[in-house]
Amino acid sequence: MNIILINKRYFPWIGGVESHVKQIANGLVHYGIKPRVICCHTTPNTEHQQVDGISVLRYGSRKTLFSLPISLPFLLKFIPKPWQSPRPILHFHLPNPLAVLAYFIHRPHGLVVVTWHSDIIKQRILLWAYRPLLRWFLKRADAIIATSPPMAKLSPFLIPHQKKTTVIPLGIPPRPPAGLTKLPSERYALFVGRLVYYKGVETLIEALKQSPATVYIVGEGPQLDAIQKKGRTLIHHQQLRIYNQQSESKLHDLFDHCEFLILPSTHASEAFGLVQLEAMMRRKAVISTQLPTGVPYVNQHNQTGLVVPPGDSVALAKAMTQLWKNPQQCQQFGARAHQRYMDHFTEEQMLTKTYHLFNNLHAASPI
């Protein structure tokens, strides 16, 4: 099979979708397939590179608008002619208006698979202009992958395409304990993520003022200054600690030794909450929010943790206090969280389902 993965960026750029695309690329190699990747560069130069044996074509990009790389070479060239034979499976990861526009311009030969990671939530003006093109593209797609049942059922863009939509949840590989040489000297709950508007960290700070828990926040982003200001008293009393991005080994240590994870996201821009799997895989309970996305599908209320209304600091404080004061219940949730991870969210399951989807499309399609 000739499979081409199309995304905004690719490794070493770090992001949730980028990590997922790398998982797919590396996983397909184990099935005897050498996929190729088309994405945008972080510089104006176009480069063709080999990354872990994967051919990666990075089109030069000069700026970013609405979180989208702007690349004229991407639009003008898109899929090189030699890459189009034999007939490829074009695997698009959306949202990515640039890729959809490039497909509209070139109409390349090949089957189209779309992984729908999230709706466009914040950029409403962009969505107004983009909506007709996106609907046209989804209608032409041969298969659509939704990362959770709520995403498949509730996204207004996917509702008309239920017959060709398959749910394949995101997955992560199991990781052995990192083995800190010096363990944290105190109990703590953990938040890990970018410090942006939809993550709900300001709600977390307000909740922490009403709870006896200690919280470590790991992340960077535009809301860092506001969060530090809002949590100044908590920081002074060492009830709150804020760390910038950590090394992979240090981050794994922090997950291994936390009491539970908090994902207090307030907007549907949080489409899945992959960080929940990092906790659940390690037998940690999770507190998350009742968003109309995959977040409460991953963490189930009173089973693997607690789910509270988004933006409700009082409810969040109550949930934090409940787990903080009841370690036994926290451990019970954590055990069920690990089982749920094993049943639904391993990397192996995700890769197997994705490969079978590709294989079935390829077998059913005329050459």
**What is the name of the CATH superfamily of the largest domain?**
Glycogen Phosphorylase B
Strand content: 15-25%
CATH class of the largest domain: Alpha Beta
The H-and-E topology, N to C, reads as EHEEEEEHEHEHEHEEHEHHEHEHEHEHHH
Proper CATH architecture of the largest domain? 3-Layer(aba) Sandwich
Distance, first to last CA: 11 Å
Structural class: alpha/beta
Radius of gyration: 21 Å
Biggest sheet, open or closed, and with what strands and sense?
8 strands, mixed
Q: Return the CATH topology of the largest domain.
A: Rossmann fold
Count of all domains? 2
Strand order of the largest sheet: 3-4-2-1-7-8-9-10
Poorly predicted residue ranges: none
What's the tally of helices?
Answer: 14
Brief digest:
The protein contains 14 helices and 16 strands.
Structural overview:
The chain has 2 domains: 3-171 and 346-364, Glycogen Phosphorylase B (Rossmann fold, 3-Layer(aba) Sandwich); 189-344, Glycogen Phosphorylase B (Rossmann fold). The chain is α/β, with parallel strands linked by helices and 367 residues long. The strands form 4 sheets. It has an 8-stranded mixed β-sheet with strand order 3-4-2-1-7-8-9-10, with helices on both faces. A 3-stranded parallel β-sheet has the order 11-12-13. The protein has a 3-stranded parallel β-sheet with strand order 14-15-16, with helices on both faces. The mean pLDDT is 94. The N and C termini lie close together (11 Å). It contains 14 helices and 16 strands.
